[in-house]
Amino acid sequence: MDSLITCETDLSATGKHHGFLRLPHSVHHSAYGWIPVPIVSIRNGDGPTLLLMAGNHGDEYEGQVALTRLARDLQPDDIRGRVIILPMVNFPAASAGMRVSPIDDGNLNRSFPGDPHGTPTQMIAHYIEEVLMPLCDYAVDLHSGGSSLWYPPTLLRGQGHTPDEAEKLAWLQTAFDLPYAWVFTGGGGPGSTARTAMGAANRKGVVSVMTELGGGGALDPGILGLTTRGLRRVLHSLDMLPGYVPDTANGTRELNSKGSVYAYDAGLFEPFGDIGDMVQEGQEIGLIHFADTPWRDPAPVTTPWSGMILCKRAIARVTRGDALVQIAADV
Ligand SMILES: [Zn+2]
What we know:
Elements: E1 6-7, E2 15-24, E3 34-44, E4 49-54, H1 62-73, E5 81-86, H2 91-96, H3 120-132, E6 138-143, E7 149-157, H4 163-176, E8 180-183, H5 197-203, E9 207-215, H6 221-237, E10 253-262, E11 267-271, E12 278-279, E13 284-289, E14 299-302, E15 307-313, E16 317-318, E17 323-330
Helix pairs in contact: 1-6, 4-6
Bound molecules: zinc ion.
Zinc ion is lined by residues 56-57, 60, 109, 143, 146.
């Protein structure tokens, strides 16, 4: 593989090992320097390989902390198989607390399949798709809503392209036991052109789910707890954490996304509803106020779909093209 990224950690070794992916980056203040993407490998005996990633978007935090905790807590004797953990996978973005990398403006989850000779973000995407994914049977990419959106704890997955994959995806969803699951309709598969980590997983035959966990650039302790619990339940469900005793599942409400409702005016968005509220087609779901023209009537925002508010914007100021809420309907 022609990646210029090297891995300090021997991913084939038994036991727990940590280090960095070294991404060569020659700049003014560091001529021979490299960007350090932290990586932890825990391996014990036979079993599947599970890739766990967070910090794909750098301003999404529950996953970064849950994986940091898992990397410290999991011991080789606890597991069967191999867990590869990347808590800050787009390290420049994650260390800056930004959705995209400040080095190249790269949005990692729009950069797959990447480019081994491209920008740092493109090089990371290429390394994940061409070096890490082929080692893996399963992958979980942990996102939150980021600075601009709020989500309730939600698992995102495809429907599967074979009966076997469909069964495994449903299995992972049940194991993770988040309150909501957003099940994609269509797309994906081995021929996927998706630029996401899930697209990379599909192209390499890796069974993959992602999450949305909170948002607003914050870290919610309750959602962090559900994430930590869910990851251990997933490991247990794959027979990779035999000593764990899962508690009773809470159950997951399955939804299909209808789409996002967008702003057509620039101003201050006042939402009428909250996440979990049911709305009807044509219903007014908020107002955009014009504080710079206070004698102008606010612009009403209506939803073109009936369903549940799954996600909402975390920033009051909006401009044309901003997503305000996402509407989803029960499967
Ligand atoms: Zn994200």
